[in-house]
Amino acid sequence: MKHYALIFLMLMSCTLLSQNDTKTKKSIYKTIDAWHEAAANADFDSYFKLMTEDAVFIGTDATENWHLEEFKEFSKPYFDKGKAWSFTSLERNIYLDSNKNLAWFDEILDTQMGLCRGSGVVVLTENGWKIKHYVLSITIPNPKVKNVVNIKKNTDSLLKQKLKLKTE
């Protein structure tokens, strides 16, 4: 009988942990959705309040690696026009660290650029979950990669030269 009680307690413990993970993931999901919604509504303050003070946003262009203040400066004109960008998550995966205060995610987005992939890191702060790092990528079907490589060949060549000069 003691064995059954122990097994029951173990199952209940696993169930509670699973429910807590689900609740935590739902909270993270809501944060990311609210962030995307704030951009779609051109709500500058709400958008950037959902990011940490040391956040990084990496855009689709190879030169777009912005720390928060740089990203605000880049983004402000778009928000001021009343239309920033509109990203709707079609699929999202969230992964939690063992302490449940750090998570990373990936998502497929419906955007004005067609399908894109977003991935990022969120951290639990005193004010809830916030985005610390985000990477936006345009998806390219594998059969079309060669065409895209050819399209960006000259631009990539110039940027590679510039970056090599920086490291010398």
Automatic annotation (TrEMBL):
Ranges in a coiled coil: none
InterPro entries: NTF2-like_dom_sf (IPR032710), SnoaL-like (IPR037401)
Domain of life per record: Bacteria
Residues in the signal sequence: 1-18
Keyword Signal tagged: yes
Transmembrane feature ranges: none
Residues of the SnoaL-like domain: 30-141
Short name of one Pfam family: SnoaL_3
Keywords per UniProt: Signal
Name of the featured protein: SnoaL-like domain-containing protein
Native source species: Mesoflavibacter zeaxanthinifaciens subsp. sabulilitoris
